[in-house]
Automatic annotation (TrEMBL):
The lineage of its organism: Eukaryota, Metazoa, Chordata, Craniata, Vertebrata. This is USP domain-containing protein. One of its GO terms (cellular component) is cytosol. Residues 1-39, 415-448, 769-797, 1207-1244 are annotated as: Disordered. Gene3D superfamilies: Cysteine proteinases (3.90.70.10). Residues 1-12 have a biased composition (Acidic residues). InterPro entries: Papain-like_cys_pep_sf, Peptidase_C19, Peptidase_C19_UCH, UBL_USP40, USP, USP_CS. One of its GO terms (molecular function) is cysteine-type deubiquitinase activity. Residues 418-428 have a biased composition (Pro residues). PANTHER family: UBIQUITIN CARBOXYL-TERMINAL HYDROLASE (PTHR24006), UBIQUITIN CARBOXYL-TERMINAL HYDROLASE 40 (PTHR24006:SF842). Residues 769-780 have a biased composition (Gly residues). GO terms for biological process: protein deubiquitination. Residues 40-481 form the USP domain.
Length: 1257
């Protein structure tokens, strides 16, 4: 059910790679055909192993299968009509018929149950969830009975599986018998306290329960309390008896479920006469034979199901793989020395196990148990951590172990799995049967293990291994012994299959065969790139294209099974103008150019045998020369692309920093790998030219580049011998270059000093620069003391220097060793506003950390984050994220929930109703982190991000929980009505007027709304109006409501589109909303802005009350378009209007002038100014001031209130600068409530299993 979660040993192996070309689309690999066993498995959809086991049992119940096949389309309908509402199509039995036909007749390794589970009405979550096979058996039978109502198969389940139990109570005084009859489809028997099935049946149907002493029975005939005996008997036996074992129990002491794993036996053949009411029945009616065992492997909370099935109709090919298949007559055994057993060596242990087996082979799923018996420790406990699962260990040692029978068995390579006196030439893979042995041993007991897609033959003795243990029998299926199969059904999978299903299976087999043939052809088709010699030349030790185009390159698709001669002929036919011999040489594109290797000379060899693979390059030439030059071939002449470094003689004042320093020029050039260093020097300059190799980077941290001159002895060595690779640098020093100041030669060491080496970093020690709360500044005296302790100095640095070395050098330069002894410190950058940035990682170099040279760093107290750590800011509350910031360093592998617990602990917060939010790029609180189990890395949390701890629990996934406010005009009667309401147990508190609202309106908190993200805006408005605080508000329809999004308790934007889902409106959980009652319906478009226009009072510094204006910006969003809209609204000429936008946070106005942005003369079209962009950024609710210049000459928009506000802002800024600012107290929480203790971790609730069935009555 959960894969190998509950399995100790790996079962099965992943499919081996096909080795062919991976197909795409129609060329995708078709399903594999059936194996040697000849039976088809069922694909697991993620958690449907319980369903697969039950379906295989029903399939190999021939009577059930044939009864189901006897129902035709006239009774069940047609699947093609299932979407028609008037058609009554019985989908479940039809899909079950098709699945059975696929399993019997279609030549594929596994079949899918996707269509069947769709007919059940199951979703993907139900297909992957764990269920009980005993419960499924009852529900599936009930669904089939409901689906077959009104058909000839309506009594199918009743006839095959229905039985009757009679419960009797016999009065000991009068002999009166009181009985009650119960029907059953399966017998549920106890496992606890009994040793087997027969004892459990004896306890149920033979032993009597006595009513005596204080526990008497009231007899209806005696009309008094009497002694009595209670018993139960089987009155009616079905043809097929299903037995469910109660393996799972509940421990009331520990209050937990557990699985009974003790030994519980069950017979292959059972006689039920002692348990029946009628003891005179013939043996043929009460004798049952076992034919299916469903096995559960795992615990009570999860596991895996598979089934052992007896092949009654002999549809599969049963073949023993061990001592049963060995011939009776064998040659004299050859003694094999048993290898020494080393218990700590898994290879030695497994070899010893296999060598001691008589058959020299073992089932892979039994190998783990044999290892446990051998050394007393399981594979998982001793070897899995170091060597992985046992299956993968066997695969990785393919030189020792050989997997046979489709990977189900393992044997030693040195030993034949099934030895015989003489190998048979006709069937080498099957064991020979000795003369006179009669029928094969498996004919009488053809049992198979059907484990989802894997089918393996087993012996009857293997069933006894399922009596006990973690993997044990869970359901038993018996059939009446008198049921005989006709001879024509033996080995005939098409027996009793309807003609239309036979036709569908034949068509499917034809399609599969065609797909396999197409896939086989496509798998052997390779693409080869041909490089034509006339378009290449020999240059720099390799073949280089003559022109910039791709004229010399052709791609040809060819069957790799054909010969080289066939391929050469095909190339000849493509090249009509080719004259003379044609040679095909394997080539490879290297960084230095195209290089040739071996020539294909054997025309009878296949392309595959010649080493030509998909994507190979072949060079087409005459085999002698290319444009008059002979190219070098072979691996020893592979060209090398070297980087030639020469001193630049030009004076460069300022250049960008690069690796390797400045004042050097770099060029790439290729050379043949077999060329000597002397030939390379000859090609680069005069004989006295020095060639130098870059020395390995050391730990000095300096910036100067070090080079080493090649000695004279190396001049006769090739580039291959010198181990020069592509991209290696060679410093070429000609005699005139030695006279420059950049080059200094000392023996065989050359030092190149470049301008970039003279770089530095300024480091300043900030004793109080560490974070730790982010709140408040110090006193003036403390500032002066800090200034006295501050030290700064320049530290020589380069781009390759580690920041840990920079820090150490800064401590030495600033003489801070005594002061920082045992104190942790870190380096931090400062942005343009003076804010400290997160500490830099000290394991990175200056360049890797993005630190620019000739800039400043602060040496602060505190830790630096490691390679797997994040430096984060945390704060509590959503109103002012910058207030009360704390700095924490956490592991990026931490989950969001663990990070929240850490922050809550550091902040000493109480309760558990908290969740995390992340601030966005503009430092505003964003959406909540709903994925509590996701790591910080998965949530894309980076160093420097701010996490805000917000009060309140997270809403369920997919739901939005948003606080709602109501916008009330002063003097409105609703203000008095709302004062009497209580929302969520908290009296509604009046909040202050929004700073963006100059109309005198205020906002009142009315409650919380929890709604699905898939709901529409109309649904949100309707749910808002159901809040108790708004029951006195009269709104005819949802269109009479306007919904604002709040940011910082200020109106931000209006939600548009009444039929749009909330997810598309980008609303996150916790977003604050404000609703406003309207006097008329409103449906704003996406390009319409709602502005509040205030007309100035002539001669005064005041404004009339604001008027709402809906401005369509789709036509013209420039100042001209706004003036025309205002002119049309007020009936004034546009040229006489003077307008400005109000910024309430700054108490200032910005004039919107008639000036258009000037552009360069090169641009043909002038760029119109967009008021929705910088610097105005017009949005919903913005206040636009307007002056009528015909009657008002005052162009100043500021009011007395604006001057007072600006003065207050200046005073607050001055107070903050001097460190005397006091942080405002946090607002009271809107969601108070009793503290809830966190519940303990509980298991995910189990979901009931169900199958949806149509109505056919």
């Amino acid at each position: 059910m959960f894969g190998n979660l509950f399995e100790e040993d790996e079962e099965g192996f992943p499919p081996a790679p096909t080795g062919g070309k991976v197909g795409k689309g129609k060329d995708a690999e078709p399903p594999q055909p059936r194996g040697l066993v000849g039976l088809s498995g069922i694909k697991n959809q993620g958690g449907t192993c319980y369903l697969n086991s039950l379906l295989q049992t029903l399939l190999y119940t021939p009577e059930f299968r044939e009864e189901l096949f006897s129902l035709g389309p006239k009774e069940l309908g047609c699947l093609a009509d299932k979407e028609k509402p008037e058609a009554k199509v019985r989908v479940i039995p039809l899909e079950l018929q098709r699945l059975f036909a696929q399993l019997l007749l279609v030549d594929q390794h596994t079949a899918s149950t996707a269509d069947l589970t769709d007919s059940f009405g199951w979703s993907s979550s139900e297909e992957s969830s764990q269920q009980d096979v005993q419960e499924l058996n009852r529900i599936l039978f009930s669904a089939l009975e409901s689906s077959l109502v009104g058909t000839s198969g309506s009594s199918l389940i009743h006839r095959l599986y229905h039985g009757t139990v009679v419960n009797q109570i016999i009065c000991k005084d009068c002999g009166n018998i009181s009985e009650r009859q119960e029907d059953f489809l399966d017998l549920t028997v106890s496992v606890r306290g009994v040793c087997g099935l027969e004892e459990a049946l004896w306890n149920m149907f033979v032993e009597e329960e006595l009513f005596e002493g204080n526990n008497l029975y009231r007899c209806s005939q005696c009309d008094c309390l009497v002694r009595a005996a209670k018993s139960a008997k089987l009155r009616k036996l079905p043809p097929f008896l299903t037995v469910s074992l109660l393996r799972f129990n509940f421990d009331f002491t520990k209050c937990e479920r557990y699985k009974e794993t003790g030994r519980y036996t069950f017979p292959q053949t059972i006689n039920l006469r002692p348990f029946c009411e009628q003891a005179e029945r013939p043996d043929s009616e009460v004798t049952y034979e076992l034919f299916s065992v469903i096995i559960h492997k795992g615990g009570c909370y999860g596991g895996h199901y598979h089934v052992y099935i007896k092949d009654i109709d002999q549809l599969g090919h049963w073949e023993a793989q061990d001592e049963e298949a060995k011939p009776k007559l064998q040659k004299k055994e050859v003694k094999v020395c048993e290898p020494a057993l080393e218990k700590d060596d898994p290879l030695s242990v497994l070899i010893a196990i296999l060598s001691q087996e008589e058959a020299k082979s073992v089932l892979v799923d039994q190998l783990g148990q044999k290892l446990l018996d051998k050394i007393g420790v399981s594979w998982n406990r001793k070897f899995r951590k170091q060597h992985g699962p046992i299956g993968k260990f066997l695969q990785s040692h393919s030189d020792v172990f050989l997997l046979v029978a489709g990977g189900a068995r393992v044997t030693l390579k040195a030993v034949t799995p099934t030895p015989g006196p003489e190998p048979s030439p006709t069937s080498p893979e099957r064991p020979a049967v000795a003369e006179g042995s009669g029928a094969r041993p498996g004919d009488a007991h053809r049992w198979f293990d059907l484990n989802d897609s894997t089918v393996t033959p087993i012996r009857e003795e293997d069933i006894e291994k399922q009596f006990q243990g973690k993997e044990s029998a869970y359901m038993l299926f018996y059939r009446r012994a008198e049921l005989q199969r006709p001879d024509e059904a033996k080995g005939n999978p098409s027996y009793m299959v309807p003609p239309h299903l036979l036709r569908l299976a034949q068509e499917e087999n034809c399609r599969l065969q065609q797909r396999r043939e197409e896939f086989d052809a496509s798998s052997n088709t390779i693409e080869v790139r041909l490089h034509l010699a006339p378009h290449y030349q020999v240059k720099d030790g390799a073949l280089q294209p003559v022109g910039p185009g791709q004229d010399g390159l052709m791609t040809i698709s060819f069957d790799r099974r054909k010969t080289v001669g066939d391929f050469r002929l095909a190339v000849y036919q493509m090249q009509d103008l080719w004259e003379g011999d044609m040679a095909l040489t394997v080539a490879q594109s290297l960084p230095a150019g195209l290089h040739l290797y071996n020539t294909l000379s054997d025309d009878q060899q296949s392309l595959y045998g010649a080493g030509v693979r998909d994507g190979s390059d072949l060079f087409v030439w005459n085999g002698r020369e290319v444009r008059g030059a002979s190219p070098q071939t072979g691996a020893e002449w592979e060209p090398v692309l070297l980087t030639l470094v020469r001193p630049s003689l030009e004076e460069v004042e300022e250049v960008e920093e690069e690796a390797g320093g400045q004042g050097l020029t770099r060029t790439a050039r290729g050379f043949a790998g077999g060329a000597t260093l002397a030939l390379v020097r000859e090609a680069l300059g005069p004989e006295d030219t020095l060639l130098c190799q870059e020395s390995r980077p050391g730990c000095s941290g300096g910036g100067a580049s070090g080079w080493k001159v090649f000695p004279a002895a190396d001049m006769h060595r090739t580039l291959k011998d010198l181990e020069l690779r592509d991209g290696d640098a060679l410093l070429v020093l000609e005699p005139q270059a030695l006279d420059t100041s950049l080059i200094s030669v000392s023996g065989d060491v050359v030092t190149v000093t470049t301008p970039s080496d003279c770089r530095w970093l300024q480091v300043e020690f900030c004793p109080r620069g560490e974070g730790g709360g982010g709140g408040g500044g110090g006193a003036a005296g403390e500032e002066e003391e800090d200034d006295g302790q501050r030290r700064r100095g320049k530290v020589p640095a380069s781009g390759n220097m580690l920041l840990s070395e920079v820090k150490q050098r800064a401590i030495e330069e600033l003489q801070l060793q005594p002061q920082l002894q045992g104190v942790r410190c870190c380096l931090r950058q400062v942005d343009s506003t003076g804010k400290l940035l997160p500490p830099v990682r000290e394991d990175l170099s200056v360049r890797e950390a993005g630190v620019k040279l000739m800039t400043s760093l602060l040496l602060c107290l505190g830790d630096a984050p490691g390679p797997t750590q994040l430096f984060l800011y945390s704060t509590v509350g959503s109103d002012s994220p910058a207030a009360g910031e704390r700095e924490i360093i956490v592991e990026e592998s931490l989950t969001a929930k663990e990070c929240l617990m850490l922050i809550v602990k550091v902040a000493e917060l109480e309760g558990e109703s908290w969740h995390l939010r992340k601030t966005d790029w503009c430092e505003e609180v964003g959406d909540a982190l709903t994925e509590e189990d996701a790591t910080l890395a998965e949530l894309k949390i980076h160093s420097g991000d701010t996490l805000v701890v917000t009060e309140g629990r997270l809403p369920p996934k997919g739901f939005l929980k948003m606080p709602v406010w109501f916008r009330v005009e002063h003097g409105d009667t609703l203000a008095n009505a709302q004062q009497n309401h209580v929302t969520n147990g908290v009296e509604v508190q009046r909040e202050g007027v929004s700073a963006t609202d100059g109309s005198g309106a205020d906002m009142r908190f009315v409650g919380l709304v929890e709604i699905s993200g898939e709901a529409f805006l109309d649904d949100l408005k309707t749910q808002v109006m159901t809040l108790p605080s708004l029951q006195d508000v009269c709104v005819p329809t949802a269109a009479f409501l306007r919904v604002w999004v709040l940011e910082g308790r200020k109106l931000c934007k209006i939600l548009r589109g009444n039929q749009l889902p909330l997810n598309k409106l980008k609303l996150g959980s916790g977003a604050e909303l404000c609703v406003q009652q309207l006097l008329k319906e409103e449906n704003l478009g996406s390009k319409e802005l709602l502005l509040r226009v205030q007309m100035g009072v002539p001669g005064e510094r005041e404004y009339y009350p604001p008027v709402e204006l809906v401005w369509d910006t789709s036509r013209d969003s420039s100042p001209r378009g706004l003036r025309q809209a205002l002119a049309a609204q007020y009936g004034l000429p546009a040229d006489c209007l003077h307008i400005a936008k109000h910024f309430p946070d700054k108490y200032s106005w910005m004039t919107i002038s008639n000036w258009s942005q000037q552009v360069s003369k090169r641009k043909k079209k002038k760029k119109a100014e967009n008021l929705q962009g910088a610097p105005f950024h017009l949005k919903d609710g913005d206040v636009i001031g307007m002056k009528n210049l015909l009657i008002d000459n005052n162009k100043d928009f500021s009011t007395l209130r604006d001057e007072l506000g600006q003065q207050r802002l200046r005073e607050e800024a001055e107070s903050r600068r001097k460190g005397r600012g006091q942080s405002r107290s946090a607002e009271p929480s809107l969601e108070p409530g009793p503290e809830r203790k966190g519940a303990g971790k509980c298991r995910k609730p189990e979901v009931a299993l169900s199958i949806n069935v149509g109505v056919f009555r």
